[in-house]
Amino acid sequence: MACVSRLSFTAIASIFIVCALDRISGQISYSVPEEMKEGSFVGNIAQDLGLSALQLSARKFQLSPDDGGRYMKVSFDNGVLSIFERIDRERICGQTDICTIPFEIMLENPLEVLHGELVILDVNDNSPTFRESRIEFQISEAISPGVRFRLESAEDPDIGINNVVDYAISSSEYFSLKSRRTDEGIVIAELLLEKSLDRELRSSFQLVLTATDGGIPQRSGTAQILINVVDINDNPPVFEKDVYKFSISENAPKSSLLMKVKANDLDEGLNADLTYSFSGLTLQRVHGVFSLVPETGEIVIEGHLDFEESNSYSLDIQAVDHGSPAITGHTKVLIKVIDVNDNAPEIKVKSLTNQIPENAPPGTFITLINVIDRDSGQNGQVNCEIPRDLPFMLQVSSTNYKLIVSEKLDRETVSEYTINVSAWDFGSPSLSTNKTIYITVTDINDNAPRFAELAYNVYVAENNAPGASIFTVTASDTDLEQNSYVSYSILDNHIQNLPVSTYININYMNGTIYALRSFDYEELKSFKIHVQARDAGVPPLSSRATVHVIILDQNDNAPVIVSPSEQSGSAALEILPQSAGQGYLVTNIMATDVDSGQNARLFYHMVKATDPSLFIIGQTSGEIRTQRKIVQADLTTQTLVILVKDNGQPSLSSTVTIHITILQNTSETLTKNSNLVNNPEYLSDINLYLLVIFSCTSIVFLLIIIVLIGIKCKQDRNKPQEYTSPSYCYERENMQDTFNRRSALEETLRYPGTDQVGRVPGLPQYSVCLSPESAKSDFLFLKPCGPAIFQAQS
Predict the structure, then answer these.
(1) Contact between 254 and 269 (Cβ < 8 Å)
(2) What is the pTM of this model?
(3) Is the peptide bond between 772 and the residue preceding it cis, with omega within 30 degrees of 0?
(4) What is the pLDDT of residue 450?
(5) Which domains does the chain have, with CATH numbers?
(6) Model confidence at 7: pLDDT above 50
(7) What DSSP string describes 182-240?
(8) Which of 366, 456, 496, 556 shows the smallest number of beta carbons within 10 Å?
């Protein structure tokens, strides 16, 4: 046990021994004198608890602000417990013999609650005082010596030795002072008549009554005693009992009769007529609780009894006769208050933490709940619980309850809990109380952003404007605040061996995707990118979605005429024998369009002709044939302007000019050619020779090619072959109409990485095919149709 001494602040020094730590059954006790200065040493709490000063701070040492905690403070530098506020024992405890102030010490990591008490030692800081500074007596001269007259007692708020211990009066030959101590420890002063009085010799006396306490230094108080000598009423009233004892329940109703006291006076007449009243020794607080009927001595309950405020009362009652002078008799009434269950339990929440993360494991401490009942005995025993359907539970810890997590929490499921704490006592009937605790579950980053779909198909028309938005992806995150802030990015990838960042960009805040360049369907049909959504949590979480970008074709390419080709800016030349009959194939216009679908479907029109009745062109095949036989009147040179246009919206077109020379026979041709040479308007001699040579060579070569193609087609009919490249196919419908129609290709559009398929239905198919190599020269190359691409019709 540690002790410290303290000097008082009065003139005479005295030593108080401050008794420190008394750890009996977990109880910590310190004793200090009252009226110590702020900052005065009480004890070393760290040393007494076996802790260092650093441990006090680390374990979040805390004095409960209730009761003793408001009068003391702790230094975390050295663990010294000192006075924080002046302590007045009389104000706190009144006349209680032992004055204690409870306090609680809370330590965390681990949680520990220690109960302690601060014992307040009384110091002699109050002087005895009399309620009245002037005391008057009427004493009959007939009273014999030896009669005692009780004097008003002095009051001293101090207790024990510091209270009134003695009385004295000024010297007098007629009077002396006798003191006696009651069983309750009260010193009563009585005035003793030493010598018979003679009113005719001396009618009054003035004495000084002095009350002294036993404190160091000793204090005293005085009152004047004025004695008037009269000649009557020489018997005082006498109560039937010196002390009355009575017990009453604290819930006794107001205005009910408690008890009755009675005194007797041996005198007769007015000298025996008594009036009852509370004497000056009765504390003022009693007057508000009890009242006394002056005529009968009945004690009536006037106010509210409360066992928790005061469990007993002491009434000092006097009976005064109506004699002259009046004589007073005294008695004491001791009242014991019986406790009833009139106080519901009180729930106090300490160290409340109303926020807890959703990943808090079971067993995590939330708050400390203290349940007290001001009643006593069984009425003060309590029980406490919370609803069972919550992920929390209560653990009993001494007189406290720990609220802890019992199950896994999920903020996205339940973000707030309202916990109704119920407490009830074991009285009859039982009383209960409730307190609501609100717990907020704080968010952690446990949910990754989620896209509405794992894959998106985005259709973009080619020739789009660079920088334009093409699509917006959105991901949601069920977390809160920073954990729900989603940013978007495109993962590293390559498109046609170029970084994806050269094609596509994304707004990292809202997920809007922008095209950085204009797409060309003829170069790039489709591509895919991977978009990542990432939240701002720590650590961050992310998810991915695939975006398939499909380029839609537009009619942005005009048809290109492959055959016949215009040489060096001059029109194409064709030779037609005059013997050609109706339906004779003059030439075949071959054109291509790099677009797809309907944008690549071509139609042929004759927009200008020297003789419109002589030639006709197939609208879909591009074949130029004679409509009738050639007659002598026809011009030998015919000029045709052919328009080739696609089926796009809007339609694009190209034109080709063809000069057709009609040859009658060799002699006639030479004659006409000679005429052309002689006419400088047409050709020179050299040009005429070149034209004749070229025409003859072309005719011979064309005949050879036709023979070879015929042989080849016959072989292919016996042995079908497959081709993967597209071909133009023809089938003879009847013996008179050869190559009358051109099939419309059934084109299949497939986009890599998707399931999107488009088909363009065409006209009936043919079995004889034009090879794409025909577009590279002035000659037609025929191939049989591949069965994998087209199906020949019989």
Answers:
(1) no
(2) 0.46
(3) no
(4) 94
(5) 3-121 (2.60.40.60), 134-230 (2.60.40.60), 238-338 (2.60.40.60), 346-442 (2.60.40.60), 450-552 (2.60.40.60), 560-664+720-784 (2.60.40.60)
(6) no
(7) -TTS-EEEEEEE-S---TTT--EEEEEEEEEE--SS--EEEEEEEEEEESS-----EES
(8) 496
